[in-house]
Structure formats: C-alpha cells, structure tokens
Amino acid sequence: MKAGTAAWTDLMTAGTEMVATGARATEMMLASSSVIGARMTIMSRAACHPAEGDYAEIGDMMMEKAVAAAKVNQALVEQWSAVLIDTSEQAQHLRQLMLGGRPLHADDILELAERWTAHGMRMLTRTMDAGGLALAPVHQQATANARRLSEQVS
Q: For the chain, what is the total number of helices (H) and then of strands (E)?
C-alpha cells in the first residue's frame, strides 16, 4: 500500500511546515511591533507638523492591507478549490465502481482503499498547510515594512 507509506512522509512534511509557520508568525509579530512604532511616529509628526508629514507612507497603509487580505483570500480559495476538485474526482471514481455493471473484485477494493487513503492524506495536509498559506502574504508585507522603515529611521 503505497499511499499508506507516503502518508507518514506527507504528515512529517506538513508538521514541519506548521512549525515553520509558527516561527514566521512570531517573526511577523515582532516586525509588526516595529512597524506600528515607526508609523505612530510618522503619524504624530504629520499631526504636529502637517506640512512635513509623510503622507505617502500614511496613504500606503490601507492599500497594503487590502492587497495582503486579497492575497490571503486568493491562497485560501485556491486551496479550498483543490480540496473540492479532489473530492469530486474521488466521488466520480466511486460512482464508476458502484455503477460499473459488474461485481467488485479484490483489486477494485484495494485500489479504492489506496485512492481514499491518498485522498484523506491530501485533505489533511492541505488543512495543515492553510495557516501557512494565509500567513505568507501578511508576513511578507510586515517584514518588508519593518526592513524599509528601519532603514528610513537609520
């Protein structure tokens, strides 16, 4: 049973990715804290001295959040679509077996078990990957902002 053996490797890979996602979440939170501090300074300067305000930075704040949210949604929709397509293919295969007009043989049952084991593993690992996919665009933007704003302050 090839799918059963591969399942352990897939689970270990997905588990490792979940740990990496946790590390990226921590990095993003640290970056966000420095970005919030820098932007609070930028906004307070603009409030105190309107003619000297960095309105480009202030204006970019909302747009970058909207773009990051759209990327998160796109990643999750793609993942969910892959799950639905996979499930539909599995249901079609089962329908073909059940309505094939002949009794099922042992090979048919083994193939069915193999397919459904692989399908279940794909469902599980895609679910485990969803957090990392959702975090990636936000992490990318937050860490890029932290680098850029720290260079401006230096």
A: 3, 0
Domain positions in the chain are 2-153
Pair of tokens at residue 76: 């999750």
Helix (H, G, I), strand (E, B) or coil at 154: coil
Pair 25, 143: CB distance under 8 Å: no
DSSP 101: S
* pLDDT 10s digits, 119-148: 989 999 999 999 999 999 999 999 999 999
* Under 8 Å between Cβ of 128 and 17: yes
Angstrom distance (rounded) from CA 85 to CA 108: 22
Is residue 53 left, alpha or beta, with left meaning phi > 0 and alpha meaning psi from -120 to 50? Answer: beta
Contact 13, 125 (CB under 8 A): yes
